[in-house]
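User: Can you help me understand a structure? I only have the sequence.
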Amino acid sequence: MSELPAGRELDALVAEKVMGWDITNPSIWWGNREVSGPFPDCDCTSHREATTIPEFSTNIAAAWEVVEKLKGQLTLQGPHSVGFNEGESYPNHWTAGFTDKAWDDIRGEANTAPLAICRAALKAVGANLARRE
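Assistant: Let's start by predicting it. Here is the structure, written out as tokens:
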């Protein structure tokens, strides 16, 4: 077993487990997400909207949406962090981390910041990061 690499399979897992989407058609990376109002056509405060799953694991702007979602979703005691470790023993080594309500450090590591964020986020919500080989 190994951690999922960056790509659409991981993006769909993040959308479902972290962002709370319903994945309606995984073959075309489509899902329903909760959006907040006000809306011009109804008096509701939120509803579900169908849209393409963002590239969370490869796009830093999309990955940062994951960080923002977790900040609101989890009871985080400490700060979140994203950092780059450079050196011979850590070439292209990014880490992302969250601190949960039990003061546990939850970390993800990868060769890119978006992938490290996704791995840490999935660990923070207790999702399985492994794939069968």
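Now, to help you interpret it: The first helix runs from residue 8 to 17. The first strand starts at residue 2 and ends at 3. Let me know which part you'd like to focus on.
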